[in-house]
Amino acid sequence: MKIMLDAGHGYSTAGKRSPDGIREYEFTRMVAAYAKDILETYQNVTVYLAHSDARDVPLQERTDDANRLMVDAYVSIHGNAYGTTWNDANGIETYVYLTKPKEAYELALKIQQHLVVMTGLRDRGVKTADFHVLRETHMTAALSECGFYTNKDEAARMKTEAFQRTCAQAIVQGIADQYHLVKKSVPTPGGQAFFKVQVGAFSERKNADDLVASLKSKGFNSFIYSENSQFKVQAGAFAERKNAKDLAARLKANGFNAYIHLD
């Protein structure tokens, strides 16, 4: 499978930026680099980068390269902004083209779900837009906005390696879920492990669905994945154990069972 990762904008192109001068590409290039490393731990996956640190690559060139290489999926990584001053706009959102192609929408939903659960940021949903990289690509394409540069808390998080790695892992997990990617038998050195907070495991899907609904009613994001003939409910995944412990404690305080495992 061939995947193209696109770090939105470049050092000199407009892009978003925080009121204190952090540029979008400073974040997106790192997320793309970490995502590439993780994707290459899967079997039969080739990863291309649409961007370059040497120069600002025009949008038309990016999509032309993707079409020429006939990649299977194009994932564009961005940061968001609301105006140019600090404000309370916040959260994650993922986009597909206006026609809402079925496979693209499914991929976007998976990426969005993992980003929200793993970062803990607000779920702004999957939306449609007439963005160039969604319109001009001939393959499945999605674009994710991973937090707001104009939100002080989110901008501060976007500067950190931990958050960048978390976003990369979430995006890759969405891709892996969509295309049923299989890990290589020998892990790539330096691969990032995450502390995952699991809330339940059931033999029947309905029980898992009921738990997700109950978690949502208490303000917790979660998702279901299938493993070893069970439907498991996960409420978060973190690079640092302390963050996982904090979430597990909040879950337990609200009457849910929760335990942490390293994966």
TrEMBL record:
Domain of life the protein comes from: Bacteria
Record carries keyword Cell inner membrane: no
SUPFAM superfamilies (alphabetical): Sporulation related repeat, Zn-dependent exopeptidases
UniProt-listed InterPro entries: MurNAc-LAA_cat (IPR002508), N-acetylmuramoyl_amidase_3 (IPR050695), SPOR-like_dom (IPR007730), SPOR-like_sf (IPR036680)
PROSITE patterns per UniProt: SPOR (PS51724)
The protein's name in its UniProt record: N-acetylmuramoyl-L-alanine amidase
Biological processes, Gene Ontology terms: peptidoglycan catabolic process
Domain (SPOR): residue spans on this chain: 189-263
A Pfam family annotated for this UniProt entry: SPOR
GO MF term list: N-acetylmuramoyl-L-alanine amidase activity; peptidoglycan binding
Keywords, sorted A to Z: Hydrolase
Chain coiled-coil ranges: none
GO cellular-component term (any): outer membrane-bounded periplasmic space
